[in-house]
């Protein structure tokens, strides 16, 4: 086997001259936040919102501090709170579920489909009660949830659908972009995501009445006023037509400027990643004992956030943890790039909602309630799945081949 120089892998995030230019523009603009003053130019935040809305062909986009706040604001805009239940998948990053807890509603976990890793629509109906107000499908790793089935269940039971698109920027279901199928789509722009500003988020919607509430929710109940009314030094975000109690969830001008640049480069990066992933699919299909994440036929345009391989543990006796450790040792790639699938939410050590006072004691759910939940497929995912970061697919073919060589030798016990 060749020895590839360790650390010579593609870094993430990718920045370029255009990124530096964007940041410098903000630096010298005297406007570092939308809560700063009008300087005669549209804020970066507004420019990014317009760009991201256009990208999705929707009328409204609201940038937020992160996806957790986007999810939280979505539920607040839809008047979901104490006494309400929200259906969420049992396999996701914990934030999908803690966002529900943040609005004092009750998350109801539902198992995943073991092939796509996304919420199993057939199990959603069993979880619906008189209190259910919404479903949050998560488009996880590199697959979209079955939006046809989810939307028809939502219509039957009059539920809102909030898509968690933290991992699925640009993916499409039957030609429609992730985030545009439900009532609201929520995105993460945290460091690892395919579009990133280090931390950051955004939500999109087609519905003006929802947007009006969202707009006030993210800047302490204040709203943006028409630019024709503005003079130099004026505030653009003002206590105008207050409709709902807000908090501060504003994205900074630096983050927004970076996101404009990131969106500009996204399509090119995604195309390259997808081509490399097709090659990797072909190579990995030759190894017995592994399965790749399934995509529904309507999810033709995909975005690889995490590339998953599922191990048949009767054939491959190593655990995902052992495979990751060996791969890290051989390639020099750290745990950011190579790791096992998330633990199921109720088994995730960082999921501990009982440590906060949110509900009266008579209805608060205890540690043993959460830890005793059982979801076969969500639990097995952690025991059977190895996950690679999307930036691996931005490497050249020589690096990809070396990665595959290392992986193959570990999986086939030669290494
Ligand atoms: C599926 C999912 N939902 C929500 C989030 C939360 O995003 P953020 O860190 O931007 O709040 C993440 C972040 O990793 C995620 O992967």
TrEMBL record:
Pfam families: DegT_DnrJ_EryC1. One of its GO terms (molecular function) is transaminase activity. Keywords: Aminotransferase, Pyridoxal phosphate, Transferase. CDD domains: AHBA_syn. SUPFAM superfamilies: PLP-dependent transferases. InterPro entries: DegT/StrS_aminotransferase, PyrdxlP-dep_Trfase, PyrdxlP-dep_Trfase_major, PyrdxlP-dep_Trfase_small. Belongs to the DegT/DnrJ/EryC1 family. PANTHER family: DTDP-4-AMINO-4,6-DIDEOXYGALACTOSE TRANSAMINASE (PTHR30244:SF34), TRANSAMINASE (PTHR30244). This is DegT/DnrJ/EryC1/StrS family aminotransferase.
